[in-house]
Amino acid sequence: MNIEIANRLVNLRKRNHLSQEALAERLGISRQAVSKWERAEASPDTDNLILLARLYKVSLDELLLTEDEIPEPGGEVQAPSQGEGAVWADEADASGFSLPGDSREPEEGCGQEEGNRQEIWENGIQEQDGQNEGRYYPMAAAIIICYLFIGFVFNAWHPGWLMFLLIPIGYSLAVAIETGNAYCFSYPVLVAAIYLSLGIFFDAWHPGWIIFLTIPLYYPTVSWLKDRARRRAYKQGRKDGQGR
User: Fold this and answer.
1) What is the value of pTM for the model shown?
2) Which of its termini does the chain have fewer beta carbons within 10 Å around, N or C?
3) What is the pLDDT of residues 210-235, one digit of tens each?
4) Strand stretches in the chain, DSSP E
5) HSE of 157 in the Cβ direction (CA atoms, 13 Å)?
6) Rounded (10°) CA dihedral 126, 128, 134, 137
């Protein structure tokens, strides 16, 4: 993230008398995610930018400090000023919480966007590809060493191979905690690991398979919880704005 935008986020938070913990609670994310934004180590996703703009009662242009002209197809158009038709983040349907293009797909740099993850803004917010990969390799190396050790020493090649499932589980859990986004957690891999463990160690292939039925429930539950947190943040932001 551009350091100027990061400083802007710090100033806006302090101007609104919010701690990082309080802001994270309103946005439904972790405090570590807010801290990374303000240290310019990560960038807020689109939904969180909208929530921040609503909460601070500023336009997205002001939030991102986009002073340059924004080119559009067919010619260059001057960015509108706040008093002349600027798009404000609280221009949402008052009966709900939808915005144009507001989808409910797996979001915020996880799922289908993995591998080509970028948040590109006119003011130069940096790519986030590979941001968390530094922790992946030590974890993978440690598990490989442990597997070779129990294999050679205890001849436990099977079921020791189950340890390799800890790599995506541990890595995705760390990313989910830091980003405050449960979509990032590899829940299906966890379910597969539990099922294999039940079958191999307890011969409970049946009814152990029932645990797979929780996978279709996980993502709707996460989506519901995130929507609930966003609605709460939206209502709180409007309430705070009306009280000023």
Assistant:
1) 0.55
2) C
3) 999 999 999 899 888 888 877 777 77
4) 70-72, 75-77
5) 2
6) -150
